[in-house]
Amino acid sequence: MVQTQLEAAREGTITEAMAHVADRENRDPEFVRQQVADGQAVIPANAYHEALDPMIIGREFATKVNANIGNSETTGDPETELEKLHTAVHYGADTVMDLGTGSDLDEIRETHIDHSPVPIGTVPLYEAVKQAGSPEEITTELLLEIIEKQAKQGVDYMTIHAGILAEHLPLTDGRTTGIVSRGGSIMATWMETHGEQNPLFQIYDEICEIFADHDVTFSLGDSLRPGCLADACDEAQYAELDTLGELTRRAWDRGVQVMVEGPGHVPMNKVAENVERQQEVCDGAPFYVLGPLVTDVAPGYDHITSAIGAAMAAQAGAAMLCYVTPKEHLGLPDENDVRDGLAAYRIAAHAGDVGSGHPGARDWDDALSSARYAFDWREQFRLALDPDRAREYHDQTLPEDNYKDARFCSMCGVEFCSMRIDQDARDRADGEMDRLESGIDLESSPAAEVNRPPVGTHESAMLPSDETWTDRSVEEAGDD
Q1: pTM to 2 decimals?
Q2: What superfamily does domain 5-356 belong to in CATH?
Q3: Residue 350 annotated as lining a ligand binding site
């Protein structure tokens, strides 16, 4: 019988995974154990995921970023999906959710688990619909069968849409966009058809038993999250949240780790309120938010509209951010969309950590600023969140090696570079301004690894050896 991280923590045991994440986060192992024991943090680590490099999700630790990947009925094969996994890990995803709804789901999932150094999440309800043929044909037996199968395959956390209840459905009638969660719409259809309560709610205790047997972490789905600003913070959303709080405590009683999913589309002035309410209702369980998007007017740029809300949510205490790509609402993302989405969300997570005062988080910023003032272009590239992109943009106008030592870039040119002018003024013997001496030692920073370069910090030894992947340029990746 597997002992969950929560059960071990409650017994006072510091597991190997706890010790590992304590090192990654630069925190005391006993602090990690206590946070897990109290349900304030989770370590998604299925006993069958042998390639896993454990990580921790909780508001007292560096904000994490999840990347969604997955195929559909019209696109995506096992090789393509593995490449998406590569892209996500390379550009700094802390976890990856496989939301595939197409073919070869078992093969793709098993391949991900075999090779992924980051936790893998799934939504088993999607596979249930695919097997049943329609939402109406789903049975509790099928749900339990699929959940247990995925747990045995090594899935680290699963989104379970158990919080949407029959009595919540009338509360959505006045909404602008109705029920926008895939899982929520599936469960609502089932309840409307059968006139019964949510089957995932009915078998919740059995799901807890399966999760406890494999140490799978709950990601309690927000089936009634708002799909537009007009629906944010309405009665339906908050009614489901109250149920999620009850489900959190029921899972804890059975030794199962829990995080809770959140919105969605939320205006800026309501973002902190959402985080604070979830923390109160769910007794501090880690909050895992999608965005939130703070405006609805920018299709094609929703990695930006959502990263704004994500940064605010991280500062307010959200523990993990689910990235949004430029293709959100428009289509299935490709590798370059994954890259852009992860860049936006790594920025949001880091900015949130700086704003909330996580230990050493700003040291990275200070180190890059020092390199910028010193015109140390190579160090700027090395410290950049996306080194390849920074170097590429610089070299579009000044590609030669001699410009890597130049005291200007193409924006201001030689004569109008403010930092060069400032340095020259400080270097004059009769100047009234002191010379600036700077330098940040990132090696001694108390920052967690995800708040120090490079962003892809997970042990990736289990990833397939693929020179064409590790060496190729971004342009080449986009051509595949």
Answers
A1: 0.92
A2: Radical SAM ThiC family, central domain (3.20.20.540)
A3: no
